[in-house]
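[09:14] KT: can someone run the structure on this one? pasting the chain below
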Amino acid sequence: MTLGDVRHLGGWFVHLRLGFQVFLSPIFLFGFLIAGGHINRDLVLGYLAFHVFGYGGGTAFNSYYDRDTGPIGGLEHPPPIPRGLLAFSILWQLIGFAIALAVNLSFAAIYAIMFWMSVGYSHPRTRFKGHALAALATVAIGQGVFGYLGGWACARGELVSALTLPGLLGATAATLLTVGFYPLTGIYQIEEDRARGDQTLPVWLGPAKSFRFAFACLLLGGIAAIALIVMQFQIGEALFLAVILAGLLFAVWRWSRTFQQAAIIQNFRTIMRLYALTSLGFIAWIWLHLIGFL
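[09:31] RB: done, structure tokens below
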């Protein structure tokens, strides 16, 4: 293998944006925790299938068609699209499906549905991403509902038990928090999306309404999460989450007051910091429960 081959292969893996996929993992882990899951083989395999192969491959698939030149989630300066990225992204996701089958059939079914939703989101023939409401529905169902139910199925091997008050409340919280962050992760690339002809939610709403939409969804999602934590865990944990939520909402409000659409890099770094701090804090809380510390 030559140095050029190594660089080419590295280009494929850069477009998986695996570091960014970590920020999506609280939804899956939250579903796993609320379902009563414990650290085991299925958690490891399920996490790998979803966040390394599923989301990673779907992100690379999207990058192939978007060909962004400005910052995108997890990449401030995205490299050119390498030859063979499309085939690689599909093969990568198929490997993930094989891993998902080793977890259980319910989990594998969710993985398969999410695969086809990611194709519909990015492929030119469907391009849900180019239509604000279709894109919002795809993100809400794909990353929110199914992301949460993937964790649930990984823990229990079935989904019927999710039709309970804790299961439904958790799904509601996961979905609202997901769609709350969604417009903020695209608000820095409004001009690039508009130039490509994509009527994304931030393009459709504009910056001011995007911030209001995000604030409302994050507030309602946070309230649902706090209510669930009061039911399932300790009141002190709910109060701690309320403080974190208040800090997040204040940061979003403050950003909305100083937002300048032309400051693309600054806006990108702001949402990446908010996303990282919120996600890593939530992940830490979940893992403290999984290891029995809380």
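[09:33] KT: thanks! The longest helix spans residues 201-232.
[09:34] RB: yep, looked fine to me
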